[in-house]
Amino acid sequence: MTNETQTFNNGIENMSVYAFSFAELGTVERILLVFIIAVLAHISVISIRHLAQRLLSTDAIRHWTKLKTLTGLLTSTLVFTLYFGAFGLVLHEFGVSLTAYLASASILGLAIGFGSQGIVQDVVTGLTVIFSDLFQVGDLVEISGQTGLVQNIGMRFTVLLNPLGAQVYIPNRTLANVIIYPRGYVRCFAVITLSPQQDITQKMLVKINDITQGFVQQFPGILRNKPELAQVETTPSGKVFVRVKFHIWPGRSNPIENAYKQEIVETLKKIDTEYAEWMVSINNEVSEAPIALRPRRLSKKRA
User: Fold this and answer.
1) Within 13 Å and on the Cβ side, how many CA atoms surround 192?
2) Which of 137-151, 173-187, 257-271, 283-297 is predicted most confidently?
3) CA-to-CA distance for 217 and 186, rounded, in angstroms?
4) Residue 246 backbone phi and psi in degrees, to 5
5) Any residues with CB less than 8 A from the CB of 268 and at least 6 apart, and which?
6) CA–CA dist 247, 252 (Å, integer)
7) Domain 186-285 has what CATH class?
8) Strand pairing class (240-248; 146-153)
9) CA angle in degrees (0–180, nearest 5) for 206-208-210
10) What average pLDDT does the segment 258-271 reach?
């Protein structure tokens, strides 16, 4: 008989002796063993979750959506495996066959799978969004009629922070009609016609600046950045105008189109009695030209 065969037989004999002695344990020993298994499994779960939280809190991984999701998925898998295995060992100590335990778990898992198809759809869609780079954390998007900044892309929910500061949880299976705003805002332009007379133009500019600053204080919730007052321009036909650029949340231009415009017109009428409402126009645009680049790359080029 070779050394390898002898070693193998010795291993089998040792396992048999261990199994026999394991089966011969008394009631107190069995209870103690079950308690030890449960405690070790729980401590292992706490350690894994603590390690995962520390890993996810580091600056190197905080902004990597894929890595964050994979870390969370791996943590959940390990936790489930530990609890599942520990529970199986506990049942084994009470005489339940591991084969029967695994078979019952498979049937139960199949039944739960049929009853929770929505959850499965959430997970599959969430993984698809993450690994296809459809959008990322920090992007300004409109999803299923909800607009906001992407705070988190999870296995079941995508979380948006809307203009009101509320968190919106969208089930991943309902993600549809996704609109991405590459610059992170919508630009709303107020094109204001000025007087051709320089002294009157200067008075108008002072009033326009004052009204704009007051508008920022009155409607801070619609703005993504401070408005910009551009330089005065003159068209070839001699028309003098100035452009005020607002960076706003999508769909929040109504105060500019109404309150801001009305105040501008009424104020400039006091300086020039012939000033008319048509001399102030409001228009929105996402960007200067169609852009087919990813939002993350465009974030460095935002005006």
Assistant:
1) 34
2) 257-271
3) 19
4) -105, 140
5) 192, 204, 207, 208, 275, 279
6) 10
7) alpha beta
8) unpaired
9) 70
10) 93
In which band, very low, low, confident or very high, does the pLDDT at 164 lie, cut at 50, 70 and 90?
A: confident
Class of domain 3-115: mainly alpha
Cβ-contact 186, 286 below 8 angstroms:
yes
The 3-state DSSP class for residue 187 equals: strand
Q: How far apart are CA 135 and CA 294, in angstroms?
A: 8
Residue 261 and residue 281: Cα distance in Å, rounded? Answer: 8
Q: Which CATH number fits domain 132-181: 1.10.287.470, 2.40.50.180, 3.40.50.300, 2.30.30.60?
A: 2.30.30.60
> CB-hemisphere CA count at 13 Å for 107?
5
Q: Is the dihedral of CA 133, 137, 138, 142 positive or negative?
A: positive
Domain boundaries, the chain: 3-115, 132-181, 186-285
Distance CA 23, CA 171 (A): 49
Helix axes 27-56, 65-93, angle to 10 degrees: 180
- Tell me the pLDDT tens digit for each residue of 59-89: 555 556 566 666 666 666 677 777 777 777 7
